[in-house]
Write a structure and sequence with these properties.
Layout (H helix, E strand, L loop, with lengths): L1 H38 L1 E9 L8 E16 L5 E6 L3 E4 L6 E11 L2 E17 L2 E7 L3 E7 L2 E2 L4 E7 L2 E8 L5 E8 L2 E6 L12 E3 L2 H17 E11 L2 E10 L5 E3 L1 E5 L2 E10 L5 E7 L6 E7 L2 E4 L15 E3 L4 E8 L1 E3 L11 E5 L4 E8 L1 E10 L1
Parallel strand pairs: 1-10, 7-12, 8-13, 15-28
Antiparallel strand pairs: 1-5, 2-3, 2-4, 2-6, 5-14, 6-7, 6-8, 6-9, 10-13, 11-12, 15-16, 16-24, 17-23, 18-21, 18-27, 19-20, 19-26, 21-22, 25-26, 27-28
């Protein structure tokens, strides 16, 4: 019996040893996996550079940003939006030929950052010593990222935010000149490396290197070739303006279109109702001396909506930028009376009616990732 007991005891001991070894091996493997997952993330920066286009006399262009998020595709192919806790205010005038770190996070190695999204919380400008509130044509930007693969120990996305500040002149009911400002955003982005550890700190400003400048130029050209204005028509019938613009996405990724602008010499008129000596109602049309030279349009679905940076009654309309998928085309349209009126409209305060001039050429600029223009002639 002692031999049987010894055998059983030895077998049990062997089994225990095997279990202990197995547990240790599994524990070590789990530790290694956890350790790998923990250490396989690297710092990732969001940097902003900005060559703005502004009216003469502009000295400050402050942008308050918030709600950053990155669309990250992991090495296993899954994609998710990663929120980044970042907000602040930058003077875009201070970012010419330099970049500033505006957000910092970590992402897994061997992943790709495909898109970046952030909110333009508020914008203001100082023009000729006066501070003005600025209306962004789109309050949310989603920008595709070129060269999106991230495989460096320290890398980031450089956003080339190239906005145009549109100054719109008009007159109020008393004939006084008033100014309105609209920010027309345009942005591209690319992954950059060869960064310094100092740039991890939010607010750090460094000179933009030659390679990064060339990379941004290449990205703008690439995006502009992919999303194109195929055709456009512009017509005027009395006070009614009709504009149709057909876009085509010839690239391999989706593009988001925020709006477009129409540039050129415009008519601006007001019509007053008066009573003549015989008591009859007559209408008097007065041509305004001051007229805007740009009409910004927001996009809602496939509709274009004039935006002059003032309160305009569009009901409960919710503005939503257009997402154009690869191979997709769409025609954006507007038909109606374009008015510029900062005060309540009545017979004593008629609206300013804005129309293109028949026979003139106008430049359309697409507000998107990249830069695209098109010349259209105004017909009757």
């Amino acid at each position: 019996m002692s031999r049987n007991w010894t055998f059983k005891y030895g077998l049990a001991a062997d089994l225990v040893a095997i279990v202990v070894i197995a547990v240790v091996l599994v524990s070590n493997q789990m530790f290694l996996m956890t350790s790998t997952q923990t250490t396989a993330a690297a710092p990732f920066l969001v940097m902003l550079t900005d060559p703005p286009t502004v009216p003469a006399g502009t000295t400050v262009l402050n942008l308050t940003y918030s709600d950053f998020s990155l669309q990250v595709t992991l090495s296993n192919g899954t994609s998710e939006w990663l929120p980044v806790n970042a907000s602040g205010t930058v003077n875009l005038f201070s970012l010419v030929n330099v970049s500033q770190t505006i957000a910092s996070t970590t992402i897994p190695n061997d992943s790709a950052v495909d898109q970046i999204e952030f909110t333009l919380a508020s914008v203001d400008a100082v023009v000729n010593g006066t501070t003005y509130n600025v209306t962004p044509l789109s309050s949310t930007l989603v920008v595709s990222v070129a060269n999106s693969q991230v495989n460096q120990t320290l890398s980031g996305v450089l956003i080339d935010f190239n906005p145009t500040l549109v100054e719109i002149q008009a007159t109020d009911a008393n004939g006084t000149i008033v100014y309105y400002f609209v920010l027309v955003p345009s942005a591209t982005a690319t992954i950059v490396s060869s960064l310094s550890k100092e740039q991890i700190k939010v607010g750090t400003i460094v000179e933009l290197g030659k390679n990064d400048k060339e990379k941004l130029v290449h990205v703008v050209e690439e995006f502009s070739n992919n999303l194109t204005i195929v055709s456009a028509t512009l017509s005027v019938n009395g006070n009614v303006t009709s504009l149709n613009v057909t876009l085509m996405n010839q690239g391999s990724v989706a593009f988001k279109v925020f709006g477009l602008t129409l540039h050129g010499e415009l008519n601006a008129t007001r019509t007053w109702e008066k009573t003549n000596a015989e008591g009859q109602m007559i209408r008097e049309v007065i041509v305004q001396n001051i007229a805007p030279d740009t009409i910004p349009f927001e996009i809602n679905g496939s509709s274009l909506i004039p935006c002059f940076g003032i309160e305009q009654d569009y009901g409960e309309l919710a503005i939503s930028p257009l997402i154009l998928q690869p191979g997709q085309n769409v025609t954006l349209s507007f038909s109606g009376v374009i008015t510029l009126q900062p005060e309540k409209v009545d017979k004593n305060h008629p609206p300013i009616i804005v129309t293109p001039m028949v026979g003139d050429n106008y430049t359309l600029r697409l507000v998107d990732e990249g830069f695209q223009t098109f010349i259209v002639n105004a017909t009757s």
